Give the backbone structure.
Amino acid sequence: MSTTDPAPRTDPGAHATSDPAAADPANDDAGIGTSGTTLRLKPSDAWMYVVMVALAIFFLFPLVYMFVSSFKPDDVVLSSSGSLGALWPSPTVGLENYGDAIERASVVRVFLNSVLISTLIVGGGLVVNSLFGYALARLKFRGRNIMVAVMVALIIIPFEALAVPLLFMGAQANMLDTYAIQILPFIANPLYVYLFYTFFLNIPVELEEAARVDGAGPVRTFVSVIAPLAKPAYATMAILGFLFSWGQFLWPVMVTRGVAVRPLPLGIGTFQTTPPIQWGDIMAYAGLMTLPLLIIFLIFQRYFVQGVASSGVKG
Amino acid sequence: MSSTTASPADLAPDDANDDAPNVGLAPTRRNEARTAWSFSAPGLLFLLVFLIIPFLLAIAFSFSNARLITPLPTRFTGVDNYVEVLTSGTFWRGLLNNTIFVLVVVPVQTFLALMLAILVNRKIPGRTIFRTIYFMPVVTVMAAAATIWVLLFNPDGLINAVMETITFGAFAPDWLNSTTWALPAVMIVSIWQGVGFQMIILLASLQDVPDTLYEAASIDGATPWQQFVNVTLPGIRNGLIFVVTVTTILAFRLFDQVYLMPQSPGGPLDATRTMMLEMVQTGFNEQAIGRGSAIAVVFFVIVLTITLVQRRFIREEGQV
């Protein structure tokens, strides 16, 4: 609208007097874009920080509460929960709750189950989905275009819609209560195939041709030329895949019974069904469940954010 | 793959089959097709067995009386399952709860995600720390998050302590045991856990909007608000549509929270019952696979409709 204004440069002054937030529109966004190295604080940033801190408290306090409570005696967790003392670890029982949680819920076992299941899902998925995506993007074969279209259509089938027949298939194949039933259904994923497909489409063909001229076969070309270039796509799939598989709940509830092959998230039920409810133990268990992902995230947070952002996910 | 020496000469014998036919075009094509199929085969096989077949089975089961364990033979029952599902009060209660959840959570979460994205997109000190904090609930396992919040929503818990302070004691419900407040409690947890992910997607969209557009707009005297409406919003349109669609679909998939947070799943008095919970309890707990599959098919049709509406949205606007 205002782009057609014949005398736009006289306008900002008028706005500045009426709207303090717009005092310096040139500085607000564009100025930062051109001089990204200097960080200047303006008065309007002060209340921006207030908002940001308030939001940070909202997102952080449940996690703080969890970790603080995990160091308290069970009865104090409840009795102190209505005051700010809820966010302060006093009185404390040290690591006793962690010891109890580890013992009661066979944490070592379910933790290793989770590691095994998630690693195999993500590891297998990285290989299977990237190979498929590469074939669809780069290799000529009959039926390719149809397969790409089918892949897009398959993305919208939610796993939940498949859970009941998959349960039936698993029961028929005598695969209930196994690792395999928790791993195999999640290795190939049309979303990740499509993610790799779109990524490989954008890699210059010349690189493959050069590799071919050098005498490399397709497998060699893929492993030594293509895959290294696709690190962002691999990182994205690894991140999303790990986030998803580590927290999985619905499917393990359906296909597992005992502790032997169950993943971490189901262990939380151990505490809620057996009274008296020991909140200290529960919070310790929740902490143990959250900690690995949290640490991995804090270390790799830059890649987490970039990976999710750079993926085709944003549409 | 097996050879670790990088010299092309070493590779030649391995790949003799691929190299030799280079003299003629047709054999190369055939080789390429063979390679393509061998690259695709694992993925195709997995998708066929674990996605396409179960999907077709779901449709087939939905027209049968299939059960997980039964001495009776499975037989075709027509639309009986659908009639039973669509006349069941608990199914509609679940769909209603899902719909309420969508109508509240989708706008609130999208707005909050956009606000967070804009805040952490500003080039000010500490923005990485804030971005990290806002994203932290996303990496919290839902089973853990739900448990923490159960304690926070305790009648004497921290949430009510804050509520009582703010409202001078006027508002302190027994959240998870109240038919009115159980669903809002579930909504709060869902938004808390999910909004960081949408924030990242919108942040990526925001960063794709060229700085030159803002420069041009400010030269033209646009206020920050005008810049937001005329530059930012159109620039992140696709990101926004994606976020709205995904949040809507995830909202229909609501399960973990309503299974874990109330004293009994979906309670109190079906106040947090959802379609997914209904499907799991029918197909799994009652082992009525046929009826459970019918719910799954209905669920799929809803998700499909949402996706198609979204597609149309993008196409129509794209042509303008």
